[in-house]
Amino acid sequence: MSSNPTAYAEAWLRGPADHPFYTRTYLPPDSSAPRAAVLFIHGFAEHIGRHEHAHRIWAQRGLAVVAFDQRGFGRTALSKHEGWRGETYGKTSHREQIEDIEWFVRYVGKRWEGSPVFLAGHSMGGALALAFPTQARAPPDPSTTARLAGVLACSPLLRQTTPVPRLMRRVGGAAANVLPWMAFPAVVPVEDLSHDPAMNEATDRDPLIRKQGTLRGLADMFNRGEDVVERGYRRWPRELPVLVIHGTADKVTSPQASQEFVEKLDASDKKLSLIEGGFHELTHEPDGVKERFWDECVEWILAHANAGAAPVSRL
Question: What pTM, to 2 d.p., does this model score?
Fold first, then answer.
Protein backbone atom coordinates (compact mmCIF):
# COMPACT_ATOMS: atom_id res chain seq x y z
CA MET A 1 0.00 0.00 0.00
CA SER A 2 1.35 3.39 -0.94
CA SER A 3 1.84 6.10 1.65
CA ASN A 4 -0.25 8.32 -0.64
CA PRO A 5 -3.21 9.27 1.60
CA THR A 6 -5.58 9.08 -1.37
CA ALA A 7 -4.51 5.59 -2.48
CA TYR A 8 -6.35 2.34 -1.99
CA ALA A 9 -5.52 -1.31 -2.58
CA GLU A 10 -7.74 -3.43 -4.82
CA ALA A 11 -8.08 -7.16 -4.26
CA TRP A 12 -10.34 -10.07 -5.07
CA LEU A 13 -11.16 -12.11 -1.98
CA ARG A 14 -12.86 -15.49 -1.83
CA GLY A 15 -15.69 -15.36 0.68
CA PRO A 16 -18.42 -17.84 1.67
CA ALA A 17 -18.64 -20.89 -0.62
CA ASP A 18 -15.52 -19.58 -2.38
CA HIS A 19 -17.52 -16.73 -3.95
CA PRO A 20 -15.18 -14.00 -5.29
CA PHE A 21 -15.64 -10.40 -4.15
CA TYR A 22 -14.07 -7.23 -5.49
CA THR A 23 -12.68 -5.21 -2.55
CA ARG A 24 -10.93 -1.96 -1.77
CA THR A 25 -8.89 -1.22 1.33
CA TYR A 26 -7.99 2.31 2.45
CA LEU A 27 -5.28 2.76 5.08
CA PRO A 28 -4.12 5.74 7.16
CA PRO A 29 -1.17 7.68 5.67
CA ASP A 30 2.45 6.89 6.50
CA SER A 31 1.58 3.28 7.39
CA SER A 32 0.41 4.35 10.84
CA ALA A 33 -1.62 1.81 12.79
CA PRO A 34 -5.35 2.47 12.33
CA ARG A 35 -7.28 3.80 15.29
CA ALA A 36 -10.20 1.61 14.20
CA ALA A 37 -11.22 -0.61 11.29
CA VAL A 38 -14.45 -0.03 9.37
CA LEU A 39 -16.29 -2.52 7.17
CA PHE A 40 -18.50 -0.60 4.72
CA ILE A 41 -21.63 -2.03 3.04
CA HIS A 42 -22.90 -0.22 -0.07
CA GLY A 43 -26.50 0.23 -1.17
CA PHE A 44 -28.79 -1.33 -3.76
CA ALA A 45 -27.74 -1.27 -7.44
CA GLU A 46 -24.50 0.59 -6.79
CA HIS A 47 -20.86 -0.16 -5.92
CA ILE A 48 -18.10 0.86 -3.52
CA GLY A 49 -16.42 3.20 -6.01
CA ARG A 50 -19.26 5.68 -5.45
CA HIS A 51 -18.10 6.13 -1.84
CA GLU A 52 -14.43 6.61 -2.64
CA HIS A 53 -14.20 10.22 -1.43
CA ALA A 54 -15.68 9.40 1.97
CA HIS A 55 -13.39 6.42 2.44
CA ARG A 56 -10.32 8.47 1.54
CA ILE A 57 -11.29 11.09 4.11
CA TRP A 58 -11.89 8.44 6.75
CA ALA A 59 -8.48 6.89 6.08
CA GLN A 60 -6.78 10.27 6.32
CA ARG A 61 -8.38 10.63 9.76
CA GLY A 62 -6.80 7.39 10.97
CA LEU A 63 -9.30 4.69 10.02
CA ALA A 64 -8.72 1.53 8.01
CA VAL A 65 -11.66 1.04 5.65
CA VAL A 66 -12.56 -2.20 3.89
CA ALA A 67 -15.36 -2.13 1.32
CA PHE A 68 -16.60 -4.81 -1.05
CA ASP A 69 -18.99 -4.93 -3.98
CA GLN A 70 -21.75 -7.19 -2.73
CA ARG A 71 -22.72 -10.36 -4.57
CA GLY A 72 -24.95 -9.40 -7.47
CA PHE A 73 -23.62 -5.84 -7.71
CA GLY A 74 -20.73 -3.78 -9.05
CA ARG A 75 -17.57 -5.49 -10.21
CA THR A 76 -18.38 -8.58 -8.17
CA ALA A 77 -21.32 -9.22 -10.51
CA LEU A 78 -20.06 -7.73 -13.77
CA SER A 79 -16.32 -8.42 -13.90
CA LYS A 80 -14.43 -11.55 -14.90
CA HIS A 81 -11.64 -12.76 -12.61
CA GLU A 82 -9.64 -16.01 -12.55
CA GLY A 83 -12.38 -18.14 -14.06
CA TRP A 84 -15.19 -16.10 -12.51
CA ARG A 85 -17.63 -15.13 -15.26
CA GLY A 86 -19.84 -12.82 -13.28
CA GLU A 87 -23.44 -13.39 -12.27
CA THR A 88 -26.97 -12.12 -12.74
CA TYR A 89 -27.12 -8.50 -11.63
CA GLY A 90 -28.96 -8.30 -8.31
CA LYS A 91 -28.72 -12.06 -7.67
CA THR A 92 -28.60 -12.22 -3.89
CA SER A 93 -30.66 -13.06 -0.83
CA HIS A 94 -30.88 -11.87 2.76
CA ARG A 95 -29.16 -14.95 4.16
CA GLU A 96 -26.31 -14.72 1.66
CA GLN A 97 -25.79 -11.05 2.43
CA ILE A 98 -25.64 -11.68 6.17
CA GLU A 99 -23.22 -14.58 5.62
CA ASP A 100 -21.04 -12.36 3.43
CA ILE A 101 -20.96 -9.58 6.02
CA GLU A 102 -20.07 -12.06 8.74
CA TRP A 103 -17.18 -13.37 6.65
CA PHE A 104 -15.86 -9.84 6.13
CA VAL A 105 -16.29 -8.86 9.80
CA ARG A 106 -14.12 -11.84 10.71
CA TYR A 107 -11.62 -10.95 7.97
CA VAL A 108 -11.33 -7.36 9.19
CA GLY A 109 -11.09 -8.45 12.82
CA LYS A 110 -8.29 -10.88 12.02
CA ARG A 111 -6.37 -8.44 9.84
CA TRP A 112 -6.42 -5.72 12.51
CA GLU A 113 -6.52 -7.93 15.56
CA GLY A 114 -6.85 -5.88 18.72
CA SER A 115 -8.41 -2.89 16.93
CA PRO A 116 -12.10 -2.02 17.32
CA VAL A 117 -14.22 -3.01 14.33
CA PHE A 118 -17.15 -0.91 13.16
CA LEU A 119 -19.87 -1.88 10.69
CA ALA A 120 -21.12 0.94 8.45
CA GLY A 121 -23.59 0.94 5.59
CA HIS A 122 -25.61 3.13 3.23
CA SER A 123 -29.26 2.64 2.17
CA MET A 124 -29.72 -1.12 1.63
CA GLY A 125 -26.31 -1.50 3.25
CA GLY A 126 -27.44 0.64 6.17
CA ALA A 127 -30.41 -1.66 6.76
CA LEU A 128 -28.08 -4.65 6.51
CA ALA A 129 -25.79 -3.09 9.11
CA LEU A 130 -28.77 -2.66 11.46
CA ALA A 131 -30.13 -6.13 10.69
CA PHE A 132 -26.81 -7.90 11.23
CA PRO A 133 -26.84 -7.85 15.08
CA THR A 134 -30.61 -8.45 15.29
CA GLN A 135 -30.92 -11.87 13.64
CA ALA A 136 -33.01 -14.36 15.61
CA ARG A 137 -30.63 -17.20 14.70
CA ALA A 138 -27.25 -17.68 13.05
CA PRO A 139 -25.88 -16.35 10.83
CA PRO A 140 -24.19 -14.43 12.26
CA ASP A 141 -22.66 -16.35 15.11
CA PRO A 142 -23.01 -14.37 18.37
CA SER A 143 -19.22 -14.26 18.66
CA THR A 144 -19.05 -12.28 15.41
CA THR A 145 -21.63 -9.75 16.56
CA ALA A 146 -19.76 -9.40 19.85
CA ARG A 147 -16.69 -8.37 17.87
CA LEU A 148 -18.33 -5.12 16.77
CA ALA A 149 -17.52 -1.87 18.56
CA GLY A 150 -20.35 0.04 16.90
CA VAL A 151 -22.76 0.27 13.97
CA LEU A 152 -23.25 3.27 11.68
CA ALA A 153 -26.25 3.37 9.31
CA CYS A 154 -26.63 6.12 6.72
CA SER A 155 -30.04 6.62 5.05
CA PRO A 156 -30.98 3.01 5.89
CA LEU A 157 -33.67 1.34 3.82
CA LEU A 158 -36.05 0.44 6.62
CA ARG A 159 -39.04 1.68 4.65
CA GLN A 160 -39.33 3.52 1.38
CA THR A 161 -40.41 7.15 1.47
CA THR A 162 -43.10 6.18 -1.05
CA PRO A 163 -43.68 2.47 -0.36
CA VAL A 164 -44.46 -0.13 -3.00
CA PRO A 165 -48.14 -1.13 -2.58
CA ARG A 166 -48.51 -4.14 -0.28
CA LEU A 167 -50.45 -6.11 -2.89
CA MET A 168 -47.57 -5.73 -5.34
CA ARG A 169 -45.17 -6.75 -2.57
CA ARG A 170 -47.18 -9.92 -1.90
CA VAL A 171 -47.33 -10.83 -5.58
CA GLY A 172 -43.61 -10.18 -5.95
CA GLY A 173 -42.83 -12.25 -2.87
CA ALA A 174 -44.86 -15.18 -4.17
CA ALA A 175 -43.17 -14.93 -7.57
CA ALA A 176 -39.77 -14.87 -5.87
CA ASN A 177 -40.44 -18.34 -4.48
CA VAL A 178 -40.91 -19.66 -8.03
CA LEU A 179 -38.51 -17.52 -10.08
CA PRO A 180 -36.08 -16.09 -7.52
CA TRP A 181 -33.46 -14.87 -9.99
CA MET A 182 -35.81 -13.34 -12.52
CA ALA A 183 -34.67 -9.78 -13.29
CA PHE A 184 -37.12 -7.03 -12.38
CA PRO A 185 -36.89 -3.27 -13.06
CA ALA A 186 -36.01 -1.16 -10.02
CA VAL A 187 -35.63 2.47 -11.01
CA VAL A 188 -34.68 5.23 -8.59
CA PRO A 189 -34.83 8.68 -10.23
CA VAL A 190 -31.27 10.02 -10.13
CA GLU A 191 -32.54 13.51 -9.32
CA ASP A 192 -33.76 12.12 -5.99
CA LEU A 193 -30.27 11.01 -4.94
CA SER A 194 -28.59 14.35 -4.22
CA HIS A 195 -28.73 18.09 -4.92
CA ASP A 196 -25.63 17.78 -7.14
CA PRO A 197 -26.77 17.54 -10.80
CA ALA A 198 -23.30 16.55 -12.04
CA MET A 199 -23.08 13.68 -9.56
CA ASN A 200 -26.59 12.52 -10.44
CA GLU A 201 -25.74 12.59 -14.15
CA ALA A 202 -22.56 10.57 -13.49
CA THR A 203 -24.65 8.01 -11.63
CA ASP A 204 -27.03 7.76 -14.58
CA ARG A 205 -24.08 6.99 -16.90
CA ASP A 206 -22.24 4.63 -14.53
CA PRO A 207 -21.56 1.33 -16.35
CA LEU A 208 -21.48 -0.56 -13.03
CA ILE A 209 -25.06 0.42 -12.21
CA ARG A 210 -28.06 -1.35 -13.66
CA LYS A 211 -31.58 -0.28 -12.79
CA GLN A 212 -32.79 -3.72 -11.85
CA GLY A 213 -32.79 -6.37 -9.18
CA THR A 214 -34.00 -9.94 -8.89
CA LEU A 215 -37.32 -10.96 -7.41
CA ARG A 216 -35.65 -12.66 -4.43
CA GLY A 217 -33.18 -9.86 -3.82
CA LEU A 218 -35.88 -7.18 -3.93
CA ALA A 219 -38.35 -9.10 -1.76
CA ASP A 220 -35.71 -9.80 0.87
CA MET A 221 -34.52 -6.19 0.83
CA PHE A 222 -37.97 -4.75 1.53
CA ASN A 223 -38.90 -7.45 4.06
CA ARG A 224 -35.62 -6.97 5.94
CA GLY A 225 -36.17 -3.26 6.47
CA GLU A 226 -39.66 -3.77 7.84
CA ASP A 227 -38.49 -6.59 10.10
CA VAL A 228 -35.74 -4.44 11.62
CA VAL A 229 -38.04 -1.56 12.51
CA GLU A 230 -41.05 -3.68 13.54
CA ARG A 231 -39.47 -6.68 15.32
CA GLY A 232 -35.71 -6.96 14.98
CA TYR A 233 -34.98 -3.90 17.12
CA ARG A 234 -35.99 -5.95 20.19
CA ARG A 235 -32.92 -8.16 19.66
CA TRP A 236 -30.40 -5.32 19.51
CA PRO A 237 -27.46 -5.93 21.92
CA ARG A 238 -28.02 -3.27 24.56
CA GLU A 239 -24.34 -2.34 24.88
CA LEU A 240 -23.68 -2.05 21.13
CA PRO A 241 -23.42 1.66 20.15
CA VAL A 242 -25.35 2.79 17.09
CA LEU A 243 -25.53 5.99 15.03
CA VAL A 244 -28.23 6.49 12.39
CA ILE A 245 -27.87 9.46 10.02
CA HIS A 246 -30.65 10.49 7.63
CA GLY A 247 -31.55 13.49 5.48
CA THR A 248 -34.95 14.96 6.28
CA ALA A 249 -35.76 15.42 2.57
CA ASP A 250 -34.82 11.88 1.52
CA LYS A 251 -37.19 10.86 -1.29
CA VAL A 252 -35.91 7.27 -1.43
CA THR A 253 -35.76 5.91 2.12
CA SER A 254 -37.87 7.10 5.01
CA PRO A 255 -36.25 9.30 7.69
CA GLN A 256 -39.36 8.73 9.80
CA ALA A 257 -38.60 4.99 9.83
CA SER A 258 -35.07 5.72 11.05
CA GLN A 259 -36.47 7.88 13.83
CA GLU A 260 -38.97 5.17 14.79
CA PHE A 261 -36.20 2.56 14.94
CA VAL A 262 -33.95 4.65 17.17
CA GLU A 263 -36.81 5.65 19.47
CA LYS A 264 -37.83 2.01 19.94
CA LEU A 265 -34.30 0.78 20.49
CA ASP A 266 -33.31 -0.21 24.03
CA ALA A 267 -29.64 0.65 23.67
CA SER A 268 -27.39 2.37 26.18
CA ASP A 269 -25.62 4.36 23.43
CA LYS A 270 -27.81 5.35 20.50
CA LYS A 271 -28.02 8.49 18.38
CA LEU A 272 -30.18 9.72 15.52
CA SER A 273 -28.75 12.56 13.45
CA LEU A 274 -31.16 14.24 11.02
CA ILE A 275 -29.58 16.39 8.30
CA GLU A 276 -32.03 19.18 7.50
CA GLY A 277 -32.93 19.21 3.81
CA GLY A 278 -30.57 16.35 3.00
CA PHE A 279 -31.39 13.99 0.14
CA HIS A 280 -30.67 10.26 0.03
CA GLU A 281 -26.95 10.29 -0.73
CA LEU A 282 -25.52 12.57 1.94
CA THR A 283 -22.03 11.64 0.79
CA HIS A 284 -22.72 13.48 -2.50
CA GLU A 285 -24.58 16.53 -1.18
CA PRO A 286 -23.08 19.95 -2.09
CA ASP A 287 -22.71 23.17 -0.09
CA GLY A 288 -20.66 21.64 2.70
CA VAL A 289 -23.21 18.98 3.61
CA LYS A 290 -21.08 16.01 2.57
CA GLU A 291 -18.08 17.35 4.48
CA ARG A 292 -20.15 17.72 7.66
CA PHE A 293 -21.55 14.24 7.09
CA TRP A 294 -18.07 12.71 6.69
CA ASP A 295 -16.85 14.53 9.80
CA GLU A 296 -19.78 13.33 11.91
CA CYS A 297 -19.17 9.73 10.87
CA VAL A 298 -15.45 9.86 11.65
CA GLU A 299 -15.86 11.71 14.93
CA TRP A 300 -18.46 9.22 16.16
CA ILE A 301 -16.26 6.26 15.24
CA LEU A 302 -13.17 7.76 16.84
CA ALA A 303 -15.11 8.65 19.99
CA HIS A 304 -16.10 4.99 20.31
CA ALA A 305 -12.78 3.50 19.22
CA ASN A 306 -11.61 3.25 22.84
CA ALA A 307 -7.99 4.09 22.08
CA GLY A 308 -7.73 1.28 19.52
CA ALA A 309 -8.63 -1.53 21.90
CA ALA A 310 -10.94 -4.30 20.80
CA PRO A 311 -14.34 -4.27 22.55
CA VAL A 312 -15.01 -6.52 25.49
CA SER A 313 -17.14 -9.46 24.39
CA ARG A 314 -20.85 -9.03 25.08
CA LEU A 315 -21.47 -12.78 25.14
Answer: 0.94
